[in-house]
Design brief:
The protein is of the alpha/beta class. The chain has a single domain, classed as Rossmann fold (3-Layer(aba) Sandwich). The protein has 7 helices and 10 strands. The strands form 2 sheets. Strands 1, 2, 3, 4, 5 and 6 form a 6-stranded mixed β-sheet that branches. Strand 2 and strand 3 form a beta hairpin. The longest helix is centred in the middle third of the chain and has 16 residues. It is globular. It starts with a strand and ends with a strand.
Length: 246
């Protein structure tokens, strides 16, 4: 019998590749995708992608999407309370694990595992400790397509948002930027590939800049974000590319 799991879904390239791997693994049954959303902005946490596009992704995978809505200035307490409540309800339905697309962030992995263990569940990490250059090459080779939707201005400038993640993009990345953006240098929106029944339709809107205090409230725990904030004083804010439904 397959183990029932929930997939922590950001909608980006790492999530897409991790979902592809777990769907091919006969040990697991993915019962739902789970994303967190800023209730005020109606956008996926950190990535800044409209919820309507996350819903379009889920429909294209054929897997139901569950959404946890967080307040504009969310706190660690609010996040943990809502996440635990959701997972306990799923546990009552036979779910025993949660899948993440994390690659090498040890602190984040330990935090996730501790929270899951407190309610008798465990984490699954299909990409853990794999070489990020090899992972992004696999992502491209499999026919996935994604677009950069958010960049940390400590690492990249406005010119990076809205670009397709392909080999040409990867060649332009500074040596300080991880090929998968695992340190939070950039985030993406996956719109085509083997997990989707059809290519997603969207158009690129305007670029928007948000100061760090608007995107990383001081009271928030890294768990409320897709990636933790890199501990660098030069981060002033984030560029977002507004993606719109067609």
């Amino acid at each position: 019998m397959k183990e029932k799991v929930v997939f922590c879904w950001s909608g980006g390239k790492d999530s897409a590749l991790a979902l592809h791997k777990v769907l091919q693994d006969d040990r697991y049954e993915v019962v739902s995708l789970l994303t967190t959303c800023n209730e005020h902005f109606q956008r996926v946490s950190m990535h800044g992608v409209r919820i309507a596009l996350a819903e379009q992704q889920a429909r294209a995978t054929g897997i139901p999407l569950d959404i946890i809505y967080l307040s504009r200035q969310t706190s660690n307490g609010e996040y943990q309370q809502k996440m635990s409540g959701y997972l306990l309800s799923r546990k009552a339905e036979g779910v025993t694990g949660m899948v993440f697309g994390d690659i090498f962030l040890e602190d984040l992995k330990q935090w996730r595992e501790a929270n899951l263990a407190s309610i008798g569940m465990h984490g699954v990490f299909p990409l853990w400790k794999q070489d990020t250059r090899a992972l992004i090459e696999e992502f491209v080779s499999l026919g996935f397509a994604s677009i950069v939707c958010c960049v940390n201005d400590a690492y990249l400038d406005e010119s990076a948002v809205g670009r397709l993640i392909d080999r040409n993009f990867l060649k332009t990345l500074p040596s300080t930027v991880d090929p998968c953006g695992e340190n939070g240098e950039f985030h993406s929106f996956a719109f085509d590939g083997p997990i989707f029944k059809e290519r997603l339709r969207f158009r690129v809107g305007e670029n928007v800049y948000r100061p760090i205090e608007e995107t990383h409230p001081s009271s928030a725990h890294p768990g409320t974000l897709v990636c933790p904030l890199p501990g660098t004083p030069t981060t002033r804010g984030f560029w977002f590319c507004d993606l719109l439904e067609e």
